[in-house]
């Protein structure tokens, strides 16, 4: 089978070879129409284009590879929603010219051959360990360490009762690894349960009767809705959150100075 070249992709897309090169090499200096960018990536995948990543890394000093650390969760419903979200993150990375690898093992070791690391649902202590042992950008997703030079993106769960004009409600939220974010949620939503097991869900059923219950978590809402008519599903705009992540990732890799590094997404 003949090797697929940039010109082959350009011909199929209807653009210049230079434009294809800019997209596939993720050149931040070039502003490419989003529709064209997506089409180039899709066509390159269909044609089976294989980039010489070693040569590209030597030429640019970048691998266009992003490492993903995923915080542990023992609750199947939480794991289900987390897997769904991570798959959307991976898809967004691909559409923006990056490929990703899932990182596992000892977090105190330096990660090689990636341009940046994204930590999703990490405790503050573990996040700091990753930052301390790597000399590349590390971005926190749903973790918070109050360091002004680290990009952090998290969901805004503050006073969500106001959105539904409720003063008396119960919030069900998956248990999370960030103690700081848990404290923020509790400070703004006094009747909050952080759910970590089916047993815990069953134990609190009597306490939820005749109360408005806001559920943060798609899978948990689906699990409970058959037995409770007072549920309200609260969802964060995942696409908006991921778009902000990609924007921060590009800024971090290019070492662009910005005034704000912490973002709360509704």
What's the topology here?
Layout: H1 6-13, H2 17-24, H3 34-47, H4 53-60, E1 65-70, H5 76-95, E2 99-102, E3 116-120, H6 124-132, E4 138-141, E5 152-155, E6 170-174, H7 179-188, E7 192-195, H8 198-203, H9 205-208, E8 213-216, H10 218-224, E9 231-234, H11 238-253, E10 262-265
Parallel strand pairs: 1-2, 1-3, 3-4, 4-5, 5-10, 6-7, 6-8, 8-9
Helix pairs in contact: 1-2, 1-3, 5-10, 5-11
Task: Describe the protein.
The radius of gyration is 21 Å and the shape is elongated. The strands form two sheets. The protein has a six-stranded parallel sheet, with helices on both faces. A four-stranded parallel sheet has the order 7-6-8-9, with helices on both faces. The protein has helices spanning 6-13, 17-24, 34-47, 53-60, 76-95, 124-132, 179-188, 198-203, 205-208, 218-224, 238-253; strands at residues 65-70, 99-102, 116-120, 138-141, 152-155, 170-174, 192-195, 213-216, 231-234, 262-265. The protein has three domains: 6-51, 434 Repressor (Amino-terminal Domain) (Orthogonal Bundle), CATH 1.10.260; 65-155 and 238-265, Rossmann fold, CATH 3.40.50.2300; 160-234, no CATH class. Helix content is 41%, strand content 17%. The chain is α/β, with parallel strands linked by helices.
Which percent band covers the strand fraction? 15-25%
Instruction: Note the main sheet.
Output: 6 strands, parallel
CATH superfamily of the largest domain: Response regulator
Gross CATH architecture of the largest domain: 3-Layer(aba) Sandwich
Rg computed from alpha carbons, rounded to a whole number of angstroms: 21 Å
Tally of alpha and pi helices: 11
Strand and helix order: HHHHEHEEHEEEHEHHEHEHE
CATH class of the largest domain: Alpha Beta
Quick one: how many beta strands? 10
The helix fraction, in percent, is 40-55%
Shape: elongated
